[in-house]
Structure formats: C-alpha cells, structure tokens
Amino acid sequence: MMRTRPLKVALLGCGVVGSEVARIMTTHADDLAQRIGAPVELAGVAVRRPSKVREGIDSALITTDATALLKRGDIDVAIEVIGGIEPARTLITTAFENGISVVSANKALLAQDGAALHAAAETHGLDLYYEAAVAGAIPLVRPMRESLAGDKINRVMGIVNGTTNFILDKMDSTGAGYQEALDEATALGYAEADPTADVEGYDAAAKAAILAGIAFHTRVRLDDVYREGMTEVSASDFASAKRMGCTIKLLAILERAADGESVTARVHPAMIPLSHPLASVREAYNAVFVEAEAAGRLMFYGPGAGGSPTASAVLGDLVAVCRNKLAEATGPGESAYTQLPVSAMGEVVTRYHISLDVADKPGVLAQVATVFAEHGVSIDTVTQQGKDGEASLVVVTHRALDAALSGTVDALRKLDTVRGVASIMRVEGE
C-alpha cells in the first residue's frame, strides 16, 4: 500500500552534488515513491546565495535560513551536502533535536565528530547515514557496516581520492612530473584551485578514519590517522617502481594488529606490485580492498567523486532512511564496542624502498649496510650506480618496524659518505 502523505526532505546545500540530488529527486519522483512506499517531496533548499540561478529548482523552495527550515515542524529527512565543520555540525544537531533523520556526505565532519553525531542520533531515535562521505558512488559504507557485520575485518587498503590517483596515473603512464600532472588534473576539473586537501592526504585521511571506525568497531578520529602527502613523489620514484614491477598509489591502509589488541590507520604514497588489483585502478577512479576473516578478499571499485556519482550514494541513503521512517525503525548506528587503541605509525610493519645519494668510493656500501643492521632492518636488495664521484644507492628492505626504519634513516643522514636521502617509500600489497 502506498502512503499518500509525502515524506518531506530538506536539502542543506545546493552546489554540484546538491543540485544533482534535487534533479534526481524531481525526475525520478515516481520511481523513488514506489521503492520507498510513499512520495518524497523536496520541501526546502537552504543556500548561501539565493540569487544564483538553479535550473530545475522552484525558486519558492530556496531559503537562506537553514535553521528555520529544520524547525518548521514538517521535515522528515535532512540531506546535508554543505561540507566542512560549521555550520554543518550545528544544523545536523538541530535536525536531530527536531525529530529529523540525516543523510550526510560530510567526510570531514564525520571524521572529526562522528561519535558525537551518532550519539545525538541515537538519543533521539533517528538515523545518520553517510554512504556518500567515502568513495562517491561506490557502495562501501553500508556493505561494511551491514553485509560484513557478522564477519571480522582485518585489513582495508584502498585508493579513496580520485584527484591524487589521476595525478599519479599520469606520472606513471606518460612520464610527466608532479606539477605537469597536477596542472592537467586542474584543467580537467579533477583538482581544486587549491589542491592541498587532496595532494597532502587530508581528504583521504578523513575517509580512512570513517572506514577504520566501521571496520574495527572502534572510534578512530582524523587525528589518529597518520598522513603523508604525495607532492614529493618524483619521476625517478616511478622509474624505481617500474624496475621492481610496481607502480605508486596514494593509499589508505587500515589494519588490525596480529594480536587483535590495537589498530593502525595511515595514508601515504606506496609502491604496489603491478599484479595487485589496486595497481590497475586508473584515472580518477577509486577502489578499496577489504580483507575479512570469513569472506576473504573483496574489492569495491568505481567513480569516487563528482556530482552524479555522489548524488547516487546520497539518494541510496535517502531511500533507506525513508523506508525506516515508514517502518518506525532505525538502521544501524555507531558500533564502537571494541574500544581498541590506535597505535602510532612507528608500530607499523612493512617493507621500504630507500634511495640514497652517496659518494662513489670503496666502503660506502659496507657502511650503509652496517647502519641497517645496527637498527634491526634487514636488507632484501641493493642497487648501485656511480659516475664522476657520485653514486645512487637503492635499498629495498624486508619487513621492518617503521620506528626502526626512521632510526636507520636518521643514522644514514649522519654518515659523511651519504650526501642525501633522495626518497623513502613504503612497499605494500605483496
């Protein structure tokens, strides 16, 4: 039976994603009603600039007073696509206080204050859904917190930022330098005018915090995530990667410790073998590799950003939340029962690729090898090239503690025969 009274939706923000959400709600209204069991009506759109022309949206719905829209008493669901911390946080809290469930695409806010927002939703018996906050259109959040709820996730590794993947892919496939690839990404609209959040890893770190919380049933904040950008990745790094049968990706890596007593969360560039599924992820696409105890290895792949893909995830959440409203129920909330500590980066164990500029004379390799041995870092391979008194030394290690590697690098820098540490890169996915 179709309920005749519509469920009313407040749209907070009407940029690229918000405009697409409004368009789909309008053009697919009949289908959405059939899937939900009741009509869904866009009841108001809160914006900052009311004079801007918004094609396909009734101007009577436009308001600059988001708070009044949420407090008017007939709103069932709020869709927050404003982004940032404020006023989004205050508006979501206001929605809960007024009996309104929330669909959000706000990764930064959820990474910083997800626990408080979940608590507020639970207090008022409401939903907080956020599939669109991580990896755009890729169904990832809901499969992890619902489909895999009976399993134990041990590791999540993925490409969760399309801008950086586009840049690194171009550097790999064309031999372009970082700045040249960034300029192309900007011209094509993949990179913002200020790309800092993407290229320095802040965007990926926020998504990593959200995914780690879901995967390990523990609270992981943005500040818990080790973050390293990819602006220092060079053409020579890609040349070294190719010699190893690898490529380079900016990865979000979330791991449960072997003893199960702690977790780690990190974002940084890494070399991965060309045989790994993530190595073939091209252009601005995202992909996430999930390793679970019973399900084994799962890979989620697709467009990770953009108006239409993100709107698809928002609308999927809207349908789920509206169905819950009709059933007078709520979906899954926060699961943080394990309360596992988040270990520091120094406790991570992985392999490393270190490129050194050294003096080209006898005994240098022995000195370098001694430093590695003194810090408990085992060497796998060494490649040396020399010319005119200068040489480059590339060392690939076996698995070692990050803290041990850091100590090794500090000691190497103090050697008179080491002119500089050209690059340090982790090797993952083997």
Characterization of the model:
It is a single chain. This protein is α/β, with parallel strands linked by helices. The chain has helices at 16-27, 29-36, 66-71, 88-97, 107-123, 141-147, 162-174, 178-187, 196-199, 202-216, 235-243, 307-326, 364-374, 402-413; strands at residues 7-12, 40-46, 62-63, 77-80, 101-104, 128-129, 153-159, 226-227, 246-256, 263-273, 285-292, 296-303, 349-359, 379-387, 390-397, 400-401, 418-427. The strands form two sheets. Strands 7, 8, 9, 10, 11, 12, 13, 14, 15, 16 and 17 form an eleven-stranded mixed β-sheet that branches. A six-stranded parallel β-sheet has the order 3-2-1-4-5-6, with helices on both faces.
Overview in brief:
The chain is an alpha/beta fold. It is built from 14 helices and 17 strands. The strands form 2 sheets. Strands 7, 8, 9, 10, 11, 12, 13, 14, 15, 16 and 17 form an 11-stranded mixed β-sheet that branches. The chain has a 6-stranded parallel β-sheet with strand order 3-2-1-4-5-6, sandwiched between helices.
Tell me about the largest β-sheet.
11 strands, mixed
Please state the average pLDDT score: 94
Helicity, in percent?
Answer: 25-40%
The structural class is alpha/beta
Overall strand count: 17
Number of helices: 14
Distance between the termini: 53 Å
Computed Rg: 24 Å
Net shape? elongated
Strand fraction: 25-35%
The parts where pLDDT drops under 50 for at least 5 residues are none
